[in-house]
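BUG: 3D viewer hangs when loading the predicted structure for this chain

Environment: internal workstation, default settings.
Expected: structure renders.
Actual: progress bar stalls at 90%.

Input used:
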Amino acid sequence: MSKIVILGAGIAGHVAATHLRRKLPKKHEVVVVSPNSNYQWVPSNIWVGIGRMKSEKIYFPLEPLYKKKGIGYKQAKAISFYPEGDKTEEKPYVLSEYVVGENKGQQEKITYDYLINATGPKLNFEATEGLIPGKNKAYSVCTYTHADHAWEGLNALIQEMKKGKKAKILIGTGHAKSTCQGAAFEYILNVEQELRKHNVRDMAEVTWISNEYQLGDFGMDGMLLSYGSMTMKSHEMVEMVFEDRDIKWILGAGVNKVEDGLAHYENLEGEYKTEAYDFAMLIPSFSGHGFKAYDKMKTILQRNCLKDL
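Structure tokens produced before the viewer hung:
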């Protein structure tokens, strides 16, 4: 009998767990370890962020489903890896810490025969000073709770615009190393359409700010697109769309600080500039989670050193 442990219950982790449970004989154990209690369909955060969907429509609780499917579930966060075990545990394990319930704060060695690390990226908001979801008039759509707050902020601004307020809206990337330009691109077009729906488009200046070298580059040197008999580069198409919708753009911008209604950035020429806004949605940079892995000898030596102290 084998025990497969899956870290993370996002798209990758959840799919891996359900497929493994379906394909493997029951004698094999499948266990999911995740600090999240819900599975969320991330692509629909865009719709939550403009008020077109309720967040409860894009997530469901994991525990009841996993119990029904015969998948083990631990609501805990991984701390470190011990692929060779340690002095007291021969099997490889992940050291994890429970985040809720009566076991909150307690750590457990979760042993495994096979391990799938599907923890995904860390949302590295702290890499940009002041970029905190819901603070400084800046928002995110990276999670459904972030998207809820984004719609609250956008809707409040729309109501002010209906009363005559002129507004500046800034959407794009919030760090020089942000790599999810596509989500921001979807969001800015949906926001622009939402402003039209509420008849306030003429009250808003909408600006795209991005670390892209070219508009429509999306961090991967763009794409070739076919339209009828024509073939065009993605930057040509995006320029046409933005010009048609009167969306301004700032490119080659590495946002490094966010204050209340003011984004600071450095461009590719080394110039330091600012862009004011009344509402911003800026995608943070992503990073790894910073897990550490220890071999058996290093673990024993560390513990012995601590004992000696």
